């Protein structure tokens, strides 16, 4: 029996995540990767709240392994789905996660979108976003 090789995306998961989180930190002008992590987590949760589970999983499959794990971690499946709203309202939602430690700027969503687009296949991302509810494409506009 021939052994299956480990997919490159799993072999390089830590390095890929490090590159992404540094991009987020630098784009947002944050001081630390801990601050960048909180911002990414809150942007992902804000987006996730607006999707049916099946749509969220389509999006998650575009993400590299560590980002995929962050996207689905601590998911309250009973939480009601909320509609996409204006960028300012969604940004305030992003900033509300662990608000005492959250230094996400008003550009948080666009900053994470810019870093994400540097670190995933944009054609695949845009194809998946086009299938998602109205508002998803605008959410991930850098």
UniProtKB/TrEMBL annotation:
Protein name: DUF2267 domain-containing protein
The organism of origin for this protein: Sinorhizobium numidicum
Source taxon at top rank: Bacteria
InterPro entries associated with the record: DUF2267 (IPR018727), DUF2267_sf (IPR038282)
């Amino acid at each position: 029996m021939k052994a299956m090789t480990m997919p490159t995306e799993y072999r390089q998961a830590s390095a890929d995540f490090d590159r992404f989180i540094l991009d987020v930190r630098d784009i947002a002008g944050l001081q630390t990767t801990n601050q960048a992590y909180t911002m990414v987590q809150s942007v992902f949760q804000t987006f996730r709240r607006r999707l049916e589970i099946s749509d969220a999983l389509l999006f998650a499959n575009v993400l590299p392994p560590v980002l995929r794990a962050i996207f689905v971690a601590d998911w309250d499946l009973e939480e009601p789905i909320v509609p996409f709203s204006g960028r300012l309202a969604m940004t305030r939602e992003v900033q509300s996660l662990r608000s005492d430690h959250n230094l996400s700027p008003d550009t948080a969503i666009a900053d994470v979108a810019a870093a994400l687009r540097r670190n995933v296949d944009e054609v695949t991302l845009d194809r998946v976003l086009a299938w998602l509810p109205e508002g998803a494409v605008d959410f991930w506009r850098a």
